């Protein structure tokens, strides 16, 4: 269709009032589209603020019901759990990750008792549990792919046994989705979905998270298994392979610098698409807002709208409680 030129066509006609703008808005941010990450630590009565992520905390399991009550009041539908261990609890293979009484497993049970309807997603990876901080088994300075797979499967099954609604492998080992799917099916968890960190890039935006999760590698980096930020076609291959192996949802991580990947994935694949608005994206906004350089609420909503507009169905974001508060305030 050919649009008649000005003055017949005046696109500003539908921008003249808030009511008109609301009426024709193409993309909406709904709290029910958001997933809130939580960091779980050992000990009791622990609520530690994360220095690099203002407003975010590490929680011990006994204090989780208080935080879960707040999340429920905000109508946030899902949480994503990460375990944070003391160095003395870690070993070379991350064996604490599949301990049926580990901190994530106990957190799952606690959350399910406090809020049975809340969807609990668990991060499946070894990096928070290994003494070397890498996401897999290490030998002679190399992260080995195949020996890591069975350990990830043991972790995923342990999470499912504790009551996790969704398991989310984030390690970027080849073949891990198929291995986890087979293990879940074999152990009676055929109905437990897998959210695959399908296109996870080796990104500088993860810096604050590594403080939060105490998971900084003790040598080298993760570029040998996480994706090169320059590669888009490879990202689609990763997603395609994870779907073929049995993924039920797919993820692009990070989000803000990878909106093109989200858009390409949305155009090509029909599975629910999740984007992770990661720690560095969060912390940059917080730092700029603290200096008075930006309008924090406006910027956060603009960023999340961009991620949704690019094609994400769900967004993992540390801003979820704030967005919920802003949404309530805007309706009062």
Q: Keywords, please?
A:
332 residues; alpha/beta; TIM Barrel; 12 strands; globular
Characterise the protein shown here.
- There is one protein chain.
- By secondary structure, the chain is an alpha/beta fold.
- It has a single domain (30-331), classed as Aldolase class I (TIM Barrel).
- The protein has 11 helices and 12 strands.
- Strands 1, 2, 3, 4, 5, 8, 9, 10, 11 and 12 form a 10-stranded mixed beta sheet that branches.
- α2 packs across α3, α3 (103-114) runs parallel beside α4 (146-162) and α4 (146-162) packs across α5 (176-186).
- It is globular, with a radius of gyration of 21 Å.
- The termini are far apart.
Please provide a brief summary of the model.
It contains eleven helices and twelve strands. With 332 residues, it is of the alpha/beta class.
What's the arrangement of secondary structure elements?
Elements: H1 18-24, E1 34-41, E2 47-49, E3 57-60, H2 64-73, E4 78-84, H3 103-114, E5 119-124, E6 137-139, E7 142-144, H4 146-162, E8 166-169, H5 176-186, E9 195-200, H6 207-213, H7 233-245, E10 249-253, H8 259-268, E11 273-277, H9 279-290, H10 296-310, E12 314-317, H11 320-331
Parallel strand pairs: 1-3, 1-4, 1-12, 4-5, 5-8, 9-10, 10-11, 11-12
Antiparallel strand pairs: 2-3, 6-7
């Amino acid at each position: 269709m050919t649009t008649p030129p000005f003055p017949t066509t005046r696109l500003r006609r539908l921008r003249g009032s808030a009511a008109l703008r609301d009426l024709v808005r193409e993309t909406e941010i709904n709290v029910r589209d958001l997933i809130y990450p939580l960091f779980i630590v050992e000990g009791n009565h622990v609520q530690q603020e994360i220095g690099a992520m203002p407003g975010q905390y590490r929680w011990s399991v006994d204090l989780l019901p208080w935080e879960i009550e707040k999340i429920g009041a905000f109508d946030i539908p899902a949480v994503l759990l990460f375990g944070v261990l003391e160095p003395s609890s870690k070993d070379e293979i991350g064996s604490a990750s599949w301990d049926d009484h580990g901190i994530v497993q106990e957190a799952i049970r606690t959350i399910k008792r406090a809020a049975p309807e809340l969807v609990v997603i668990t991060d499946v990876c070894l990096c928070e549990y290994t003494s070397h901080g890498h996401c897999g088994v290490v030998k002679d300075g190399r992260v080995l792919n195949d020996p890591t797979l069975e350990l990830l499967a043991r972790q995923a099954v342990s999470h499912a046994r504790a009551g996790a609604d969704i398991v989310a492998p984030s390690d970027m080992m080849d073949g891990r989705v198929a291995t986890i799917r087979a293990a879940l099916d074999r152990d009676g968890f055929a109905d437990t979905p897998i959210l695959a960190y399908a296109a996870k890039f080796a990104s500088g935006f993860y810096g604050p998270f590594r403080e939060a999760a105490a998971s900084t590698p003790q040598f080298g980096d993760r570029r040998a298994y996480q994706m090169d930020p320059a590669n888009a076609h490879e990202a689609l291959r990763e997603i395609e392979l994870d779907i073929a192996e049995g993924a039920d949802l797919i993820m692009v991580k990070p989000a803000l610098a990878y909106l093109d990947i989200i858009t390409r994935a949305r155009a090509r694949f029909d599975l629910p698409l999740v984007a992770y608005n990661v720690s560095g994206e969060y912390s940059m906004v917080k730092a700029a807002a603290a200096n008075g350089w930006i309008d924090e609420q406006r910027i956060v909503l603009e960023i999340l709208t961009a991620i949704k507009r690019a094609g994400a169905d769900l967004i993992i974001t540390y801003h979820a409680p704030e967005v919920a508060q802003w949404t309530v305030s805007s309706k009062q």
